[in-house]
Automatic annotation (TrEMBL):
Post-translational modifications: Transiently phosphorylated on a His residue during the reaction cycle. Phosphorylation strongly increases the affinity for substrates and increases the rate of nicotinate D-ribonucleotide production. Dephosphorylation regenerates the low-affinity form of the enzyme, leading to product release.
Domain Nicotinate phosphoribosyltransferase N-terminal, chain residue ranges per copy: 7-127
UniProt-listed PANTHER family: NICOTINATE PHOSPHORIBOSYLTRANSFERASE
Species the sequence originates in: Pollutimonas thiosulfatoxidans
Function: Catalyzes the synthesis of beta-nicotinate D-ribonucleotide from nicotinate and 5-phospho-D-ribose 1-phosphate at the expense of ATP.
GO cellular component, one term: cytosol
Nicotinate/nicotinamide phosphoribosyltransferase domain span: 163-389
Protein known as: Nicotinate phosphoribosyltransferase
Enzyme class: ligase
Catalytic activity: 5-phospho-alpha-D-ribose 1-diphosphate + nicotinate + ATP + H2O = nicotinate beta-D-ribonucleotide + ADP + phosphate + diphosphate
One Pfam family cited in the UniProt record for this chain: NAPRTase
Residue numbers of Phosphohistidine PTMs: 216
């Protein structure tokens, strides 16, 4: 079994799920899987993937896991009580062979509250099934050499005393065994440079900090749940602030692109939120624009945190750290480059929300290839409403 615990997922799934329980318990959603890597034959592993997902749907939270969640300062008791009753509803997920030869289709439909936890473990299952069948002799030693080299770039540079990096690679991992080795090694050898992991199971097991706030699906769903489409980003941030009262204060900035984010992220949000997360587009341009925006809104940039998490490598993270040193706080989340860098080409697979309450939803990021929507007319309308350039 690949997934043996419902905690084997990213923290932001639980922080979003708590918001869903308290504010949108009746929302109905649809997610769809997509493989962006060409010429990958996953259909031959269809039965294996289905069997793993079936086992996933048999899992329940253990009492020790619930107790761990209760100990997180931002988790509320009624939410943890709900998790005590929770399981993945197998009837809500369909895994079939695609019309495109060799590809598979995965669709999740149902209540948002009951389907939100599917994405991360399902992607981890697809990754691990693929790699354990295709790479029968994994490059463990090559992976360890690469990991050591990356860590030394930070540990051996006295100019990086304040450098903090977190592991964000659950959904992209080569395998859960390698994932755990990466976290254990970073904790042992990087000291204070290792900020923690997005994976709640590994955070609990190895006594490291679990990290995460909100994901794209949260702001996407608010396109259908808010009072008006143009105000959906503001609505999403306001509901988040209402739930967490200043905690978990890192806002996601790229659901509609940076221009639209800055228009909505006014002085109130600048002062209320601790910072923002970059996940598409040029990170240097993004950082400079955000710092200028803080200054223009009378918020001291030195008190704010910029989180970088878009396809990061250690050299790029170090470059960003040096660019913004002394001007703000910076933090880095590295995924694929940590958990799937053993000399094999990683899969570019995603599972995105495409509908909420029967209405199309979309992410229109600063990286065009990351846009995912099944309704071209809605996408064009969204661009118009948020004054975005045509595709």
């Amino acid at each position: 079994m690949i997934i043996t615990s419902l905690l084997d997922t990213d923290l932001y799934k639980f922080t979003m799920m708590q918001v869903v329980l308290h504010h949108f318990p009746a929302a109905q959603v649809e997610y769809r899987y997509k493989c962006r890597t060409p010429n990958i034959n996953l259909a031959r592993f269809l039965d294996e993937i289905r069997a793993e997902i079936h086992e996933l749907c048999q899992l329940r939270f253990s009492e020790s896991e619930l107790q761990y969640l209760r100990g997180l300062r931002f988790m509320k008791s009624d939410f943890v009580d709900f998790l005590g009753l929770f399981h993945m509803p197998e009837k809500c997920i369909k895994v079939t062979e695609s019309a495109v030869p060799g590809e598979i289709d995965i669709t999740v439909r149902g209540p948002w509250l009951h389907t939100i936890l599917f994405e991360i473990p399902v992607l981890a299952i697809v990754n691990e099934v693929y790699f354990r069948n295709v790479c029968t002799e994994p490059g463990w030693e090559e992976g360890r050499k690469r990991l050591q080299k990356k860590m030394r770039l930070v540990v051996d540079d006295p100019a990086l005393a304040d450098f903090r990096v977190a592991e964000y690679g659950t959904r992209r991992r080569f395998s859960k065994i390698w994932h755990e080795e990466v976290v254990v090694t970073m904790k042992a050898q990087m000291g204070a440079h290792f900020a923690g992991t997005s994976n709640v199971k590994l955070a609990m097991k190895h006594n490291v900090t679990p990290l995460g706030t909100m994901g794209h699906e949260y702001l996407q769903a608010c396109q259908a749940l808010g009072p008006r489409l143009r105000d959906s980003q503001v609505y999403a941030l306001e509901v988040w602030a209402k739930e967490y009262r200043g905690d978990l204060g890192i806002a996601l900035s790229d659901v509609y692109g940076m221009d639209a984010f800055l228009r909505d992220f006014d002085m109130y949000f600048c002062k209320l939120f601790d910072g923002a997360r970059h996940d598409s587009g040029d990170p240097f341009v993004w950082g400079e624009r955000l710092l200028a925006h803080y200054a223009a809104n009378r918020a001291d940039p030195r008190t704010k945190t910029l989180v970088f998490s878009d396809a990061l490598t250690f050299p790029r993270a170090i470059e960003l750290a040096k660019r913004f040193a002394g001007r703000c706080k910076v933090s880095f989340g590295i995924g694929t480059n940590l958990t799937n860098d053993l000399g094999h080409e990683p899969l570019q697979i995603v599972m995105k929300m495409v509908r909420c309450n029967g209405q199309p939803v979309a992410k229109v990021s600063d990286a065009p290839e990351k846009t995912m929507c099944d309704d071209p007319a809605y996408l064009a309308y969204l661009r118009q409403v948020f004054e975005l350039p045509p595709a």
